[in-house]
Amino acid sequence: MESSLKERYRNLGLNIAYYRKLRGLSQEKLAEKADISRTHMSRVETADCAVSLDVVFHLADALGVEPYKLFQSKE
């Protein structure tokens, strides 16, 4: 992952965690719904890896939100 994008990935991970917790889902349950591993789910939330748009779309669907909401800053 490009270091200049780290903050954007961090924001994405925080938003995914926010909506996950809002819906009362564990990382394991959300990962299952999005068809990814729990380890990958954890790495996405902590911005420890880059994430494909396919995964973002699956996560948004599993969370019941529009994908753009996962990219919005909560400032």
Which percent range describes the beta-strand content? under 5%
Biggest beta sheet summary:
none
**H/E element string?**
HHHH
Cα Rg: 11 Å
Tell me, briefly, the overall form.
Answer: globular
Set down the secondary structure blueprint.
Layout: H1 6-22, H2 27-34, H3 38-45, H4 53-63
Helix pairs in contact: 2-3, 2-4
Give a nutshell description of this structure.
With 75 residues, the protein is mostly helical.
Report on the structure:
The protein is mainly α and 75 residues long. Helix content is 59%, strand content 0%. Helix 2 packs across helix 3 and helix 2 crosses helix 4. The longest helix has 17 residues. The N and C termini lie far apart (23 Å).
Features:
single chain, mainly alpha, 0% strand
